[in-house]
Amino acid sequence: MVSSDEETSRRRSRRLVIAGEIGNVILIGVLYLHALLWLNTLNCEISEFKPSPVRIKRDTKQLPVDLEDYTIIIGQDTIIPKNVLDRSCSQVHQYCSEKSQRLTGFPGARGSPGDQGPVGPPGRRGPMGIVGPIGLVGEHGSVGEAGRDGKCNCPFPDMYVQRVPIPGPPVIKIEEKMVPVPVVVVKEIEVTKLVPFEPTPPGFGPPEGWAPGMPKPGRTRKLPRYSTVRPPPTPKKKTTQPPIHVVPTEKNLTMDEWNAEMNISTPRPYMGPPTLGYNRKECILAAVGIPVLHAESQYGRVGSWMRDALPNSMKTAKRRWVTDGFASPVLYEYEDERQLLDKVQKIKYYVDYLASGTGNVVYNGSYYYHKHGTTSLVRYELETGVQVEAELDPDMSHVDCGRLPDHTFEECNATDRHVWLYDRPHNYVDFAVDENGLWVIYAGADSETMKMAKLEPDLYVVSRWDVEVNTTDIADSFIMCGVWYGLKSAYNLQTQITHAFDLYRNDTIPGQVEWYNPYQGLTMLHYNPLDARLYFFDNSSLLSVNVRIEEDLPEYIDE
């Protein structure tokens, strides 16, 4: 049971709660009335400062009672007549149907063009770029001590042919005898590879009965490597007869009258055109050495590189020249092989005509090339810029495919052009230099046989030859010691020099010599008598190789 005191306290609490709630309601009502009165007072003050609006006389037309049948509400505060909206929509639909366009608004009138804005100020010059990293070329090494006089220019005297696959990893084979072979590669890094020793196959190689370990044959001699300009040969002293002492007479006779009286005939010097003469050096190619990589071309995969075969100074002997592509009017000159390796050009020669093919040469300070699309040869003097043009043969092959604006050749059928020289496109003339001077190799337009000519420096043709070899059966050729040699393939890694023809004896030399294309893309092959090396351009790589020759008369001549 709850006591009376507790119940009394509870009632008292309820009364206090009810009284508080009633007080809150009264307070809220008072505040609401106060706010309403304050707002009314504020509206009255604002209305005193508002100008009275202009009253417009409305149409006295009686509006229908139901506004929904007469007006349309667009948006929140926009009401337009329904007939106006219908009329506008019908016009829009009619315009769109006539113009076959989507529902778009009426095009407005074209506005007048605005004034051209002022030219803005030039922008700030950008910051200079960061200098690129230095290449991998090292510094010049110290000059070593002079070596003792050698007997050949091969790395190893007892090695006649070295099969060195380049590029690729070192090849090690287990054979009867293994010898290290140094191979010079780009950036002047020396790599040692172990390759099997293999004697030269039958051909121009060692005589029968020779085996590894035996002394070199007595008939074989290798060319020395010349690092300087070869001095001109000293002229032989003419042998003169002793003077004839004649008893003086009273007659005062001249020399001609005295010769006529004594019946003495003096031979007159030859004043006719140049003749072929004799072979200044008789030798036969026996083998080739190891390819040496001098540099990489900074241009395309097709081209040629040259060294002057008859320089007139030490500076000219150090210079190198490079051409790019199958036809180009530009000859690039480098100060020396170091600049060639670093790809630093010295001069660009822009000749007057388009030089066709990759068989051009530099000889005695002049650039010799074939004028594209003609039967003419051109000699361009590098120092003076003077050039001489002469026709080689009116019946020579020279018509090529058309050229595109990007300086490339169009694709054409064999019937639309003349036959190419070698198994290589867009090549018609190949110059060659040996110990006897300047030569030229070309093809006939009517026949596919190889043609050759001996030239004077002024492009005078001394003599001509027709060699019964198909022009497209060989990949390239060169002339050394008056003998023409033909290479079988320019794309096989291992191939042979299969053709040899003595131009002075007009006889074919049997046999073959092994040849290696390290990069399988040979486009130029020339012999340089200055250092007795073969220079060739192989898939953007500039290489050379030494040769082993036999200077004695070959055995086939004595038979």
In short:
By secondary structure, the protein is of the alpha+beta class. The protein has helices at residues 4-49, 82-99, 255-262, 314-318, 337-342, 555-558, and strands spanning 71-74, 78-81, 178-185, 189-196, 220-222, 284-288, 292-296, 303-306, 320-324, 327-334, 347-363, 366-371, 376-381, 387-391, 429-434, 437-443, 449-455, 461-470, 476-480, 483-487, 494-502, 507-508, 513-516, 522-528, 533-538, 541-550. The chain is built from six helices and 26 strands.
Compute the CA-based radius of gyration.
50 Å
Largest beta-sheet details: 7 strands, antiparallel
Tell me the total number of β-strands: 26
What is the CATH topology descriptor of the domain at 285-402 and 417-551? Lipocalin
- Specify the helix fraction band: 10-25%
Strand proportion: 25-35%
Straight-line N-to-C gap: 158 Å
Counting H and I runs of at least 4 residues, what is the number of helices?
6
Region (Disordered): 103-125, 205-243
Transmembrane segments: 16-39
Protein name: Olfactomedin-like domain-containing protein
Subcellular location: Secreted
